[in-house]
Structure formats: C-alpha cells, structure tokens
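New to this. Please check this fold:
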Amino acid sequence: MRRTCLWSGVPPRSRVVASWTEEYRKQNVVEPSAIWAMREIVFDRSIGLIQNVILSHARDSLHALVARIDRLRELVPAAPVGNGIFIHPEIPSVLSDIAFHQGAASMILFNDNPKGARENAETYRLRLDRIAYVQAKCAGIAMAVLSDRKIRNSLTHIDEHLPRALSKPNTGWFIDIAATVREPMGPQQHGLAVGFCRTYIASEDIILHLDGEISVSDLKADSQAVLHAVWGEERPAPQ
C-alpha cells in the first residue's frame, strides 16, 4: 500500500517555487562560468547551474532505476531455477545497480537530515534549497519508497550498516540474489537463520535489504512520478 506523501501539506507548487527562486536570486552564489555536456543538464535556470548539475545526477539515477527494474523483470522469468534461486550471471549486477541508484537519487532529492559534521555551510544551504525545490515540485505525490530515510541510509551508508548486520550470530546471508520465496533451500539445512542483502523475492516483487523491504513496483512508480513532477517527463499510464 502506498502511503501519503510527506509533503502533502506543502503550499501550492507555483507559490513555493516562486518564493524559493526569489530567495535564490538574493544570494551571491558563485556559479560555473560555463557548462558543456552531451546531454541536457540545465533544465531550470531559475535555480542556478550548480543545482541543475546536482539534480541531473538524480535524474540519471531515476532513469537507471527504471531501466534496471525492467531488466530484472526480463531476467527472472527466463532464468532457470535451482533450489529456489534464479540462475543468471547478470542478476547480481542488476540488483547492485538498483540499490546504488536508489540510494543516489534519494540522497540528492530527499535528504533533509541535519547538517553533517563534514558538510560546510554552503553545501548544507544548497542541500536545503534543493530539497525545498523538490518538495514543492512533488507536492501531493504519494511517495512509497524513494523518500524513505531508513532505506536510504541502509543503501548509502552500507559500510556502516553491513558490518553490524553480518556480525549476527548463526546467520547465513543471501547477497545480490533473486529467489522464488524468502526461505530458499539451503541455510535451514545447516541450522542457520537467513539474512538478505539486495535480494529480490519474485513471489512478492520486493527486494530485501538488511532490515528493510523495498517494493520494486512502488520504486519504479516513485521514479517515474518524480521524473514527471520535476523534469516534466511523460508519465506512463498505470498498467
């Protein structure tokens, strides 16, 4: 079930964006002298070049998410199954890519955490301004996965979360695997509990990652909704 957007109470989008743009213009922001690229980088000059470049990385990650989710759905039905595991050499990299791009997009678009110890004042201000801009654009969107802070942290701070998880006693881990059900054959025969890291469960259409569950359908829908709201890209009709 998709939960209500965190920003459903945000004032009308046009008023918020206009106010944000006016505030931005009052700031003496040092901008790049020029931008050269082989693709569209600058889509909204009112927010400045720096924000456009940063947001372009989120846009790329959202496109990659949609493409890699589609690829996962092509691979799994065609892959042979052994002991409840789908066997295909591309599956691990696809799952890893999905996790990476979900974390990157969520960090750029929705990270409203307090100022970090290593984050200078200018970077922090840019982040807050960018989040406000995205919030205004996405007002009213029912965001199910992409803005989830707990999942984002488990993906972007994998170096912190994974050691704690892997230290659990008597636990075997499935990493970058696609399985038919949550309890594929194998670990139970050795008396072990099962842990999951970037593991796709086909029967539920979810990715299990440490203590979190990621609905693949909702993740794709979130990605397409944000691409439409922020960049005006065509949103596919619900299937």
About this structure: The radius of gyration is 20 Å.
